[in-house]
Amino acid sequence: MSPTNAATQSLDVLIVGAGIAGLSAAIALRRAGHCAEVFEQSSFADEVGAAIQLPPNAMRILVKWGFLRERARLELCGAALTARADTLQPLYQGSFSHFSDTYGSSWYSSHRVDLHNELKLLATEEGGVGKPAKINLASKVVDVDPETATITLASGAKRTADLVVAASGIHTTFLSLVLPPGQDITAISTGISAFRFLIPTSNLLPNDEIAPFMKEPGIKIFVDEGSKRLVWYPCRGCVTP
Q1: Per-residue pLDDT tens for 59-86?
Q2: Could you list the active site residues?
Q3: How many whole angstroms separate alpha carbon 151 and alpha carbon 31?
Q4: Residue 126 CB: number of other CB atoms within 10 A?
């Protein structure tokens, strides 16, 4: 709903979880004229994460919300490269230069913490479109009644609104409350693991074999003959790929 066409009825909405999904829901709801209150079990004291990709379909929405790329320290990904892991021989090279004209935005990458901080600002800042969302930290939700839109906190306190949005992650226990009885939604292991880490660019530039890959910021994928992949892309102004 356009912020210039505010909803005829403002809803009070409780959002469980203040991650990327929960904060995004809060931003969208406040811009649509609703009142959003977020409950997060952590204290945001030690936010961690690695780089995250923001393709054009996501960026179009973020920019419409007032997301500032410079403030969030986004890094433009202008190209993609796939190369052999053993020889570094390129297998594929492609440019993203047409993305803005074709898809409405370029492709960017971000550190997860920077993305999260910018979303938190857009959800809670004064002066934006709609009423600022309220975020309650150290407020773990232990139960939800979808019939009455009531949440129960670990403290025993209860809150009731018009709607509850569960944005508490892939391991949430609240999906079973709205699915048919007996339907199993437990996450199943694929047997594939992903290990995420950050390396300062300054540690890589002295290496003569790696340095040429640093010339153009973008997405780089190194593959072996099996199923292993190393996916590499920059964040925070190319300080950490």
Answers
A1: 999 999 999 999 999 999 999 999 999 9
A2: 196, 233
A3: 24
A4: 6
